[in-house]
Amino acid sequence: MGRVCWLQLFFFGGGGGHTGLGVLPQVHLGVTPPSPPSLPAASGLVEMGAHWIHGPSPGNPVFCLATRYGFLKERHQDFFQPPLPKRKAEAIRHLGFGTNNKIFLEFEQPFWEPQQQLLEVVWEDESPLEEPSANLEANWFKKLIGFVVLQPPEHGHVLCGFIAGEESEYMETLSDAEVLSTMTRVLRTLTGNPRLPAPRSVLRSRWHSASYTRGSYSYVAVGSSGDDIDVLAQPLPEDPKDPRPLQLLFAGEATHRTFYSTTHGALLSGWREAERLNQLFKAPGPTPQL
Ligand SMILES: Cc1cc2nc3c(=O)[nH]c(=O)nc-3n(C[C@H](O)[C@H](O)[C@H](O)COP(=O)(O)OP(=O)(O)OC[C@H]3O[C@@H](n4cnc5c(N)ncnc54)[C@H](O)[C@@H]3O)c2cc1C
């Protein structure tokens, strides 16, 4: 393990930062996700919770699919019948979907100063522009960017570490005991105190392993562009002249060209699709049967 030092910052920007702590209902490990829906049946009410806008009319369902993009990326081929149009399938293939996890460490007593908000880990002799070594087993923890001190301390002395990328996915394969012991090693190195008490408990997210998420949020991968996001967001059927009624709508962070990967992007995409339905209901001609 290299030598490390720490810095304190007062704010934290970007996806996976502070706001995530407040807005995400994401640390509910062990929650059973809903069962997969059976789309082709499409008769009667399909109830999938808040993530679906649905209609009970047989033969004319309007669904709004807002499932986590990772699930769609992995499963769209067997999820839809008939399959998604080639253009949309290609867009899904091009866009990236990554992993960002949180590691919560609870301590008997804080070893940090009361005013400290963030403990940032900086590895000496390594450029932040370089990926750490490919040896994940030996180096995964070096991807950890630091720890946020959770407030208020009356609720416990808890640090929340952030780790993204392949290293984060590797971390998911380890046991709690292994993560706890590695975090203890990192913190002992960081503080220069080899006897620093180990955390009394550890709790972490596993967004990559969770079968209904398969990761954290989308990104514009090398070789993809905002155009792929727009294609993904297109409702089906795509051609406005297609005589068939609107069948399938797409929402979720990965469908927002500007604010992909964020909660507000997800929210705006939901409003966008709700507005599409509003326009459908307002349109002259026979009232769509939903
Ligand atoms: C660690 C972390 C930190 C983050 N920090 C921030 C931040 O600071 N700021 C910010 O703006 N964003 C942040 N984000 C991103 C933000 O959380 C997401 O962009 C947002 O929640 C995505 O919303 P969504 O509606 O697209 O997907 P989700 O909220 O994931 O909703 C999709 C839902 O579909 C369900 N589902 C999946 N498959 C099926 C199925 N087959 N049937 C039924 N249901 C299914 C899933 O269980 C899930 O509940 C963070 C994310 C992570 C993981």
UniProtKB/TrEMBL annotation:
Transmembrane segments: none
Domain Amine oxidase: 80-277
One cellular component (GO) term of this entry: cytoplasm
Compartments in which it is found: Cytoplasm
Main localization (coarse): cytoplasm
GO BP term, example: spermidine catabolic process
Keyword Nucleus among record annotations: no
One GO MF term: polyamine oxidase activity
Signal peptide (UniProt feature, chain positions): 1-17
Cofactor (UniProt): FAD
Keywords: Cytoplasm, FAD, Flavoprotein, Oxidoreductase, Signal
Listed name of the protein: Amine oxidase domain-containing protein
Native source species: Accipiter nisus (Eurasian sparrowhawk)
